[in-house]
Amino acid sequence: MDITPTQTLDASGLACPMPIIKTKKAVDGLKVGEILKLIATDPGSVSDVAAWTQKTGQELLGHEEVGGKHVFYIKKAK
Amino acid sequence: MSEETKRLAIIAAHGTMDAAYPPFILGTAAAAMDMEVAIFFTFFGLQILKKGRIDKLKVAPIANPAMPVSIPNIIGMLPGMTAMATGMMNSWMKKAKVAKLSELLQMAKELNIRLIGCQMTMDVMGIKKEDLIDGIEIGGAATFLEFASHNAITLSF
């Protein structure tokens, strides 16, 4: 995906709910408009990251699977 | 769209390991979703907040037909079976890389979740404030209900 992230968070190996807790902390540390690249192996993260961005008002720019891992790009929208 | 619920109020009333996980998993997830969260630890659930106890909670194999490995009650009642079932459960949790309860407790504190120990349970079970971990509140039903009364989702475990 042709997106340049501001910061990368590797949550590989972490189970629910740690990926979204780490994501929240990382996004809290960003400025509006900056992008977090999140890497996760938890299969539930596909649904959970989408739900998290919807509830918190952040923007999920995209999701892809790379080498069996889920990669998400999240833009801090507010 | 109607106004979104911003609060989650959880009751933790049981002191087994399997019963202690859902309040922390749902509570920390809700806090990560910018919700305000309170967990009320009452009756046997108060054991979760005792110093040094959280990672030593047990799983009971007796009268628990949902164990992934079926354990008949007549076997489950034997000495040592609770320890064995707990050990099995711990190893499955570790394999699935689920965070330890103490780690989730730490997250709960960092996310400013209100952890409320039940005063009445303390009186019933002879538990003193110094027996409980730091960073919690002590309160009664009204403390929890006042929080919950502000349009909270309430879950009980």
In the CATH hierarchy, the architecture of chain A is: 2-Layer Sandwich
N-to-C span of chain A:
23 Å
Q: CATH superfamily membership of chain B, which one?
A: DsrEFH-like
In spatial order, strands of the major sheet of chain A run: 1-2-4-3
Radius of gyration of chain A: 11 Å
Tell me roughly what share of residues is in helical segments of chain A. 25-40%
Shape of chain B: globular
- The domain tally of chain B reads 1
Task: Give a written overview of the molecule.
The complex is a heterodimer of chains A (78) and B (157). A four-stranded mixed sheet of chain A has the order 1-2-4-3, with helices on one face. With 78 residues, chain A is an alpha+beta fold. Chain A has a single domain (7-75), classed as TusA-like domain (Translation Initiation Factor IF3), CATH 3.30.110. In chain A, a hairpin with a 2-residue loop joins strand 3 (59-66) and strand 4 (69-75). The model of chain A has no long low-confidence stretch (mean pLDDT 95). The relative contact order of chain A is 0.27. The termini of chain A are far apart. Chain A has helices spanning 18-28, 45-56, and strands at residues 7-11, 35-40, 59-66, 69-75. By secondary structure, chain B is of the alpha/beta class. Chain B has one domain: Hypothetical Protein Ychn, Chain: A. Chain B has helices at residues 17-32, 73-76, 81-95, 101-110, 119-125, 141-148, and strands at residues 7-12, 36-41, 114-118, 137-139, 152-156. Chain B is globular, with a radius of gyration of 17 Å. The mean pLDDT of chain B is 94. The A-B interface holds A 13-18, 20-21, 23-24, 48, 51-52, 55-56 and B 25-26, 28-29, 31-34, 96-99, 107, 111.
